[in-house]
Design a protein that fits this description.
10 helices, globular, 11 strands, seven-stranded mixed beta sheet
Length: 320
């Protein structure tokens, strides 16, 4: 079964991202995110741990989101859909604005298993000189980078593109003193024209970043955070190599290689993904990050027939 999916990036449903491979979904007595009850194939021994997903995605949050959407959808149809994109962005922002984190990290080791547990070096051995999101999503992330990156042309600025490949989706003709790429395939990295240097490393094998403390002003990770099986260790390393006040930008869509994405990602929806990545920031270095923000940057209305892939960002800054 694995071979039939090898190298294929699939679009998961925007409202609920299920991977049918192996039936791996967290099991709990409650609902996850968008209100859909999850049963069977339990990763956590058939129950949700205290303070875990069941309490994290609360009934109050579900009712709040439902009331927002129901209230706006009617008006949206009356106005030709113009209001819906705004409420989507508002609801997505509120995912992390109003979160109350459990005392302990709410995921178990099983949540980070993948259908294909072979070494990632096998999977990424052959270069894939393709884009994994469509042109609309690429434009969305590039425009976001244009707004938040340090000004182009500064020699004292350094960026790290983590989980990089042959293209980084950075603004066209953007230049700073140092742009490092860290990825899995040397052939891909060597063809990325924006990089000043690059390193090949499997962060799921060894999550240590091969860079000195306080090196980078910005770290980006485009559509690859869902593949990290040791995210807390990676985010702790990101914190270490960022300069004080440096920004980490994790962007993602609803596309993935389903055999390599972690179980909790493929079993949850787009809004839940903001919680998951926000949790990585919150628990990796307690008190070391600003409060993470969740932002929908999609072009168009992704939930009601947009022709483009959705794009989301979760971001935080390193506190001094």
């Amino acid at each position: 079964m694995i071979s039939s999916f090898q190298g294929t990036s699939l679009r998961l449903p925007a409202q609920h991202c299920f991977c049918s491979l192996g039936g791996r979904v967290p099991r709990s007595g409650g609902r996850i995110g968008g209100g859909r009850r999850v049963t069977g194939g339990g990763l956590a021994g058939g129950q949700c741990r205290a303070g875990g997903l069941q309490s994290w995605f609360t009934e109050d949050r579900r009712l709040m989101l439902k009331s927002i959407v129901v209230g706006i959808v009617g008006a949206s149809f009356m106005r030709g859909g113009t209001a819906l994109a705004a409420v989507n962005r508002q609801a997505y922002a509120e995912v992390l604005e109003k979160v109350e984190w459990p005392a302990e990290f709410p995921f178990s080791k099983d949540d980070f298993r993948r259908y294909d547990e072979q070494p990632d070096a096998f999977f990424y051995n052959q270069p894939r000189l393709v884009t994994h999101i469509d042109n609309g999503a690429i434009t969305a992330i590039r425009q976001y980078y244009e707004k938040v990156f340090p000004p182009s042309g500064r020699d004292d600025v350094a960026l790290l593109d983590m989980c990089s490949s042959w293209i980084s989706h950075y603004p066209k003709e953007y230049t700073v003193g140092k742009i490092t790429g860290l990825g899995m395939n040397k052939d891909e990295l060597s063809q990325n024209p924006i990089l000043t240097d690059y390193d090949v490393k499997d962060l799921n094998e060894d999550p240590t970043l091969p860079y000195p403390d306080n090196t980078y002003d910005v770290i980006t990770n485009a559509v690859s955070v869902d593949y990290l099986s040791k995210p807390l260790e990676v985010f702790k390393e990101m914190h270490r190599v960022l300069k004080p006040g440096g920004k980490a930008i994790m962007s993602f869509s609803n596309r993935c290689f389903p055999t390599k994405a972690i179980a909790v990602w493929t079993a949850t929806n787009d809004m839940d993904h903001a919680y998951i990545v926000g949790a990585y920031f919150h628990y990796s270095v307690p008190g070391g990050w600003t409060k993470p923000e969740s932002i929908e940057i999609s072009l168009g209305n992704v939930r009601f027939g947009s022709p483009t892939d959705p794009m989301y960002v979760v971001t935080a800054k390193k506190l001094a």
